[in-house]
Amino acid sequence: MASAFALLAACTSEPKKEGQEKISTDVIDVPATASETPAQPGAAPVLFFSEDNHDFGRITQGEKVSYSFVFKNTGGSDLVISNAQGSCGCTVPTYPKGPVKPGEEGKIDVVFDSKDKSGLVQKTVTLTTNCNPSTKVLTINATIDVPDKEE
After folding, report:
1. pLDDT tens digits for 95-134?
2. Per-residue pLDDT tens for 62-99?
3. CB count in 10 Å sphere of residue 75
4. d(C-alpha 73, C-alpha 79), whole Å
């Protein structure tokens, strides 16, 4: 009995941060992984990107470039992206903070800062979602030209 109380106490919610939308726990139930019974076909959210790799081509060192990866929830329940993490501080993603309903589209905006970079670079953004699999990796590439220094 004491262990059940400790478990419940450990699951209390943290205070809501300013600007943070409260999401119902109903939307993070992934039937294929949350219970012993298999998911009904089409019941889980599905994150679909028509493109998960973008090449900026040639850019000049110090340039900031951005791209929007558009996705669609092709599944049967709300899709939630709980985190988006760039592979370095030079790659900054923004993502929808609320649920994306079945059939709706959303976008992951990625800003890449080429300061102090040169040559061919490849960076990634890893999304954590309530889909199966729970992670999705987006990739950006660029060839960074270093301008000639005038003396």
Report:
1. 999 999 999 999 999 999 999 999 999 999 999 999 999 9
2. 999 999 999 999 999 999 999 999 999 999 999 999 99
3. 22
4. 7
Cis ω before 15 (30° cut-off from 0): no
Rounded CA-CA distance 121/141 in Å is 6
Q: In the β-sheet with 135-145, what is the strand arrangement from edge to edge?
A: 53-60, 135-145, 119-129, 81-86
Would you tell me how many other CB atoms lie within 10 Å of the CB of residue 103?
Answer: 10
Superfamily of domain 27-32+43-144: Immunoglobulins (2.60.40.10)
Distance CA 137, CA 73 (A): 16
Consecutive H or E run containing 44 = none
